[in-house]
Specification:
The protein has 155 residues and is of the alpha+beta class. 40% of the residues lie in helices and 14% in strands.
Length: 155
């Protein structure tokens, strides 16, 4: 029996400890905001937090997640997470939306550490988050807008 805490709620699952966390989240818990895309930790669509740090859930075994707080896009309710999501809406960042839960999770992690990121900071933090629609300019603008608002500035 594996004991997982996902978005603050305890879950007991009888699953293979080597199963990727992604499949437990989607198929066994029913939270489908975290997406499967590449399956090899290269696209970022499956990004979740383990104890606040972004990880690729498609390659993270359940055994690594036991005893840690797992946060998915559905549980992203911090002030920073809300600011990022509001900036995404305001700037209409999303095109198809498939990659955006991973983009938002990575952007929130960045802004939780640094509300005034440079372009280089954004590039480093968002590296490995792919967007087939190429909304990278809007993603960058959304990160900057959310950072400005979090720092108490006007957009």
């Amino acid at each position: 029996m594996l004991n997982l805490t996902i978005n603050g709620k305890p879950h007991q699952l009888e699953l293979d400890p080597q199963m990727p966390l992604l499949w437990a989240i989607r198929d066994h818990i029913g939270l489908t905001g975290t997406k499967y895309s590449c399956g090899v930790a290269q696209c970022g669509s499956c990004t979740v937090y383990l104890d606040g740090d972004p990880v690729r859930s498609c390659v993270t075994p359940l055994s690594v997640a036991v005893g840690k707080e797992i946060t998915t896009i559905e549980g992203l309710n911090s002030a920073v997470g809300r600011a990022v999501q509001e900036a995404w809406k305001e700037l209409e960042v999303v095109q198809c939306g498939f990659c955006q839960s991973g983009q938002i999770m990575s952007a929130t992690a960045l802004l939780s550490r640094n509300t005034k990121p440079t372009d280089a900071d954004i590039d480093a933090a968002m590296q490995g988050n792919l967007c087939r629609c190429a909304t990278y300019a809007r993603i960058r603008a959304g990160i900057k807008l959310a950072g400005t608002k979090l720092a108490g500035g006007k957009a």
